[in-house]
Amino acid sequence: MHIKVIKPGLATSVQDAGRNGYYHLGIPPSGALDQYSFRAANLLLGNAETAAVLECTLLGPQLQFNVACQIAICGATMQPRINGQPQPAHQVLSIATGDTLDFLPAAAGMRAYLAVSGGIDLAEVLGSRSTYALGSLGGYQGRRLQAGDMLTLGAAPSTAAPVGRSLPTALQRSLPSKTTVRVLPGLYAHRLRPESATRFYQEQWSVSSESDRTGYRLKGGTPLQFQPREAPFGAGADPSNIVDAGYPIGSIQVPAGKEPIILLRDAVSGGGYAMIATVISADLDVVAQLQPNQGITFAAVDMQQALQARQHYQADLQQLRQALG
Amino acid sequence: MSEHLIHATLPGTFYRRPSPDAAPYVAEGSQVEAATVIGCIEVMKQFNEITAEHSGRLLSFLLEDGDAVEAGQVVAKVVS
């Protein structure tokens, strides 16, 4: 009664809503980088919304099911196949014992979420089944999946979702190859020279190929210049250094002014780089679906707009629950 | 004689050599087997090898060492 990993894919890991409440102790939230798609896949199956799923990045895994169950895949476009036969995404699919599931490489988006009925059953660590690979914490043995791993399913939902039920198109997120992301400027935006602070929002940046769950590194824009200053006690000599501070998830730092880094859910919790802005929580899913070399532009918003965007995001989730409840 | 296009399956950075100071995996015009590694794509700090997929002669590369590559983009041509 398990799922066997034949091929692990590029970077497949168990994720859920995340490990919230420990970031101040240095343990990041982790969890599905695209929370909307992760929740949609679970809701399709009638699972608890935050049941553990597999986050499949660019190149999905090949899995053999030694258990009959239902599955649903949301997020990036990665053509799923059961026993070699193409299957639709955003839809409840039926798996028979002995079936093999694999995926074609991502045609759009970066991360697909594979939910199984009952969720992936693993011991929780600090209240979450999410994998934090850098800390060898949570998930399947604290790491990405490897060939030969055996995954166990949790108890299936009492009412099985009808096979073929699908996510309405209006509730599917688009996966653009370039996008504008909203940010709240600060806390150290005042450290930029005014011309850099302006130009940062005018240029398109592209996602570098090193980008991962820890952070998205951006290139292609003009290097940013910081205000000259005498380094205060405890700060590094580079003008982009500050006295160590906590890093919010979504915060953007620019070491030496060269390549901005957006911190994501596996990020370090603090350090000595000035954060010039923070991606608003409502737009973090969008960042995580950008592939290497795709384009990103930043738009500054104020706190009220950021909170409004968060409300809209919550309303979208509510719509998902109503459509699939 | 037929011409085959070798496509990238992943986006990232394309390299023609296993490390910055190593010789290229293959030179244009060389004979290759289906399993011959002709390049690699770096994504998320991992290097994923690209094989020729066909045995024959590697006619040309369509990307330079260090170029950005999109999934589906043609990397090289092989004639067999």
TrEMBL record, chain A:
It comes from the Bacteria. Pfam families: CT_A_B. It comes from Aquitalea palustris. GO terms for molecular function: ATP binding; hydrolase activity; transferase activity. This is Biotin-dependent carboxyltransferase. Keywords: ATP-binding, Hydrolase, Nucleotide-binding, Transferase. The keyword ATP-binding applies. Residues 24-317 form the Carboxyltransferase domain.
From TrEMBL, chain B:
GO terms for biological process: fatty acid biosynthetic process. Pathway: Lipid metabolism; fatty acid biosynthesis. Keywords: Biotin, Fatty acid biosynthesis, Fatty acid metabolism, Lipid biosynthesis, Lipid metabolism. Residues 1-79 form the Lipoyl-binding domain. Pfam families: Biotin_lipoyl. The keyword Lipid biosynthesis applies. SUPFAM superfamilies: Single hybrid motif (SSF51230). Gene3D superfamilies: 2.40.50.100. One of its GO terms (cellular component) is acetyl-CoA carboxylase complex. PROSITE patterns: BIOTINYL_LIPOYL. One of its GO terms (molecular function) is acetyl-CoA carboxylase activity. It comes from the Bacteria. This protein is a component of the acetyl coenzyme A carboxylase complex; first, biotin carboxylase catalyzes the carboxylation of the carrier protein and then the transcarboxylase transfers the carboxyl group to form malonyl-CoA. This is Biotin carboxyl carrier protein of acetyl-CoA carboxylase. The lineage of its organism: Bacteria, Pseudomonadati, Pseudomonadota, Betaproteobacteria, Neisseriales.
